[in-house]
Design goal:
Layout lengths: L15 E5 L2 E5 L14 E8 L7 E8 L17 E9 L2 E8 L5 E5 L7 E5 L8 H4 L7 E4 L5 E6 L3 E6 L13 E2 L10 E10 L2 E8 L4 E7 L7 E8 L12 E5 L2 E10 L2 E12 L27 E2 L5 E3 L3 E6 L2 E7 L4 E8 L8 E10 L4 E7 L6 E8 L4 E8 L4 E10 L15 E9 L1
Antiparallel strand pairs: 1-2, 2-3, 3-4, 5-6, 6-7, 7-8, 9-10, 10-11, 11-12, 13-14, 14-15, 15-16, 17-18, 18-19, 20-30, 21-24, 22-23, 23-30, 24-29, 25-28, 25-30, 26-27, 26-29
């Protein structure tokens, strides 16, 4: 599946990927299209077979912090929104660690990784604990069940901490195990939020969101208690794309490592969809920063299949993806100078044709404009053609140069107003893109 890899009407941010048995599960918050606040109160669980990442199944609402129709509240002490949960397996049971906004968090349990999860307990902390523990909120909990069976939880917002959980009950904090600032807030670590812990070999990887930009960074240690050495950025979803926060983790699926993260949509940082990119873990344990693409779990996309506009991974100049209804997601707010990009297409090795046909479906805005089509780079790439866009909705076609091999594709937008009145139309929404396709 390309990005976003779940059905495109689904809004799952803060994704924690976990492989249990022969399936990969994604646990995250639940946003809504065009929302004015982060997250609602539902945990919706999705999973796919590890050998078929194009076949995602929704298991429905597995835990709820507010009654909603047939979904009854699992947290009688609060109706706060459910943020950034995590799930781990211990002795054949699956434990959900919930952060509830402005309320005490909790642990729930299930016999199945997809749930439903039944409330086990609120977090229990020792008396006379530091305030950040005694409040028992546990912001953005990332949980590790270590090889020796000991259990650790990593949390924090604008400051991190970790502590050990009693593995006999999975919700009680062990006295004396609290460690503040497990990831420092000063440079180069710059911790902000979104702890997620993974163990690879004998190395502990703590993935988190720094306080600068829209990035996921990581630090490593030889011990679950640290100290953690800053290692670098894995992905920055604000590069050539509307920024926002970021939250996710790494996961190995069928021998391939991935970074799961989310992107903003609908012109708000509070409407996010989960995405994924391939990563490589080098022999020395480092993870090189990867770019944001349209690929998801795919190695390349076909330009000869109809491409929905919202697979774009480059949006510059103020344009953004918006959902009009469950069937329709377009790129809107397209003005002169906007850049829209997709990475990567495999055009094949056909040297016979000199040209290709390019078709694009648009919603007209009563304006005339021009769409230049470049490959490989939006500043210095090869321009393979252009299409004149009219004022009405419809499909517009142009002949473009035939290309072969694997390329990024960029659209550069220009209006077609000339003369004295040109400046009057700057900033005007020229059209919306719904989809496009190349053909030979």
């Amino acid at each position: 599946m390309p990005n976003p890899y779940l059905p495109r009407w689904e809004y799952i941010p803060d994704g924690e990927p976990r492989v249990f048995g022969n399936r990969v599960y994604i646990y995250g918050s639940h946003d809504n299209a065009g929302s004015d606040k982060f997250c609602d109160y539902r945990l919706k669980v999705w999973s796919a077979p590890v050998d078929n990442l194009n076949n995602w199944t929704c298991h429905g609402v597995a835990f709820c912090t507010r009654t909603d129709g047939e979904n009854k509240s699992d947290t009688p002490w609060t109706e706060g929104e459910l943020y950034a949960p995590d799930v781990v397996e211990k002795d054949g049971k699956y434990y959900l660690y919930a952060y509830i906004f402005y309320a005490k968090g909790c642990v729930a349990v299930s016999d199945r990784p997809e749930g439903p999860f039944q409330l086990l307990s609120q977090y229990k902390v020792p008396e006379n604990s530091p305030k950040v523990l005694s409040e028992a909120v546990f912001v953005d909990p990332g949980v590790l069940v270590d090889d020796d069976g000991r259990v650790y939880i990593y949390c924090g917002y604008q400051g991190s901490y970790m502590t050990e959980i009693d593995s006999s009950n999975m919700y009680e904090i062990i006295s004396g195990s609290f460690i503040p600032d497990i990831i420092p807030t000063d440079s180069p670590h710059d911790f902000f939020e979104a702890c997620s812990l993974r163990k690879i070999g004998n190395t502990y990887y703590l993935i988190y969101s720094p306080k600068i930009g829209s990035r996921l960074a990581y630090a490593t240690s030889a011990s679950p208690r640290g100290p953690f050495e800053y290692r670098g950025v894995i992905i920055d979803n604000g590069v050539d794309y509307p920024g926002g926060n970021n939250h996710g983790s790494i996961c190995e699926i069928n021998g391939q490592w991935y970074i799961f993260y989310h992107r903003t949509t609908n012109g708000t940082v509070m409407s996010r969809r989960d995405c994924v990119e391939r990563i490589e873990i080098e022999p020395d344990g480092t993870i090189k920063q990867v770019e944001m693409t349209s690929l998801g779990f795919e190695k390349s996309l076909s330009p000869y299949e109809i491409i929905p506009a919202d697979l774009a991974c480059v949006l510059k100049g103020g344009c953004f993806i918006t959902e009009k209804n469950i069937f329709s997601r377009v790129i809107t707010n397209i003005t002169t100078g906007c850049i829209i990009g997709y990475k990567y297409f495999d055009f094949g090795e056909d040297f016979i044709s000199k040209t290709m046909e390019f078709n694009i479906s648009i919603n007209g805005m009563g304006c005339k404009s021009k769409l230049r089509i470049l490959i490989d780079d939006y500043e210095n790439g090869l321009e393979i053609g252009s299409v004149d866009i009219g004022s009405d909705s419809g499909v517009y076609m142009g002949a473009v140069k035939n290309v072969t091999g694997r390329h990024a594709v960029y659209f550069i937008v220009q209006d077609r107003y000339e003369g004295y009145f040109t400046d009057m139309f700057k900033g005007r929404n020229l059209f919306e893109i719904t989809s496009f396709v190349f053909s030979k």
